[in-house]
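Repro:
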Amino acid sequence: MDESTANVLIVDDVTSNLAILAEMIKSMGYIARPVTSAKQAMAAIEARMPQLVLLDISMPDVDGYELCEILKKDVRTRDIPIIFISAMDGTEDKKKGFDLGAVDFVSKPFELEEVTSRVNTHLKIYQMKQELENYNRRLHKMVSDQVKRIEEEEKNFILALAKLSELRESADGVHLKNISKNSKLLAMSLQFSPKFEKEISNAFVETIEVAAGLHDIGKIGISDQILLKPGILTSAERKIVRTHTELGAKTLEELYNMNKHNEFLKMAIEIARYHHERWDGAGYPEGLKGKEIPLAARIVAVVDVYDALVGERCYKEQFSHEQSMKIMNDEAGKQFDADIIEVFNKIQNQLQK
């Protein structure tokens, strides 16, 4: 028989009732699946999901009410319509059945017209509901795919801006790549630490790889005269450079307000604003202290300073890896989260330089 033909599970411990109902179901053009107990019913459901259940109330061991309750608690079977079949047609009996999730009652002795009408009605309703759910799933997928496409386009556009900003300081664009890769590596490593495992999910790790690359996007608003100045900046110039944290965060916030489904922008905003905060509270722009600083920003702060130390800049010479690690460790508990530095030490040989 065609797999698309609806199959109806009939549960009744009286074989004569099963025979009558099975013939009625077949005469409607449906597949009849008669069983005599709740145990057999569960086995039949495991073998093949029915589109409707005709369920007797009075059965030994597990009665119809109990089986109905079991089916309605199971996510796989809770939407299957259940019609109770019973000689009990009192108000309280029906109320109890409806409270448990049944959709209808058929009284004994059975009448073909009544059974046909109720079965056809609820099968059509179930089919329409299934079609609607399938449509909603397809629609949800279409919308999700569209949102992901928009997010990807936004991400590529923003990263392009970040690269343009970085190219003013570094012609090869290596710093941006290093920050992204090393932030992901450090976050992955922190996942294995009991101190961070609850905060860092796989999604966090994937997101920080992208978001970390936007840490200095605010430097687009800093003039070349200051940004590329060789040697020591004046106090006034340092104040201007420090504004890149707020400039970057505000730029990203404007983009985020246009699409609040974009999760990586939320983290990117935190990183852009707070990656120059210090564990001891002496950082900027807000002077946050300790765990007041978002975790993503604390991770990027470590990676960013390390890459600046081992890299050559217009205002400084290149330090060796050993010199850089000594400086990093000296700042544990002062500039940096000491627990992050502990893990950073363990992965130092895997860092991109």
